[in-house]
Amino acid sequence: MVELIITTCIVAVLASIALTQMRDYTRRARVSEVVTATGQCKNTVAENYLIRDSTPDPGTWGCEGPGRNTKYAGRVETSSNGVIRVTVENVDPLMNGRHVHLVPARSGGSTPMYTPADLGKGVQGWICGSDWLPVRNALPANCRSDTTTFSSGDFH
């Protein structure tokens, strides 16, 4: 009887670890889908940096609107500097309503681009991340930058 109780306890501990890992894996997969859903908007912003000659208003880069092709990406918004903000939806209560940011960057991928100074130049990379640590932890490894400084911009 004692062996049965000990075995049951061991199975319960292993099951709790497995459930936690499964929840984290599911969360990461869903948040990765949010990042993937920004592909079209990234292309649009990159093209606009090359062709525009004046600073656009927030929300006028041409890719804003509801999330596309996924139920986890909510509204897509842009700032006047081309920073893309996507709202996380339907992931879990901890993540819902939070944001993923993609910031156009110069060569090296670590220096952000700003309008109007960088208009006419090509976007060389993207600074990807979130302004909230639990979202950053769920993002892919190459997308875990702290984008708090870019989250306070005017988005539409």
Strand content: 15-25%
Strand elements, count: 5
Q: How many distinct domains?
A: 1
Measured as a percent range, the helix fraction is 25-40%
Describe the structure in your own words.
This protein is an alpha+beta fold. The protein has one domain: Glycoprotein, Type 4 Pilin (2-Layer Sandwich). The protein is built from 4 helices and 5 strands. A 5-stranded mixed beta sheet has the order 1-2-3-4-5. Strand 1 (73-78) and strand 2 (84-88) form a beta hairpin. The radius of gyration is 20 Å and the shape is elongated. The relative contact order is 0.17.
Overview features:
4 helices, elongated, alpha+beta, Glycoprotein, Type 4 Pilin, 156 residues, 5-stranded mixed β-sheet
Secondary-structure map with pairings?
Elements: H1 2-36, H2 39-51, E1 73-78, E2 84-88, E3 99-105, E4 125-130, H3 133-138, E5 145-146, H4 148-151
Parallel strand pairs: 4-5
Antiparallel strand pairs: 1-2, 2-3, 3-4
Quick structural overview:
This protein has 156 residues and is α+β, with helices and mostly antiparallel strands.
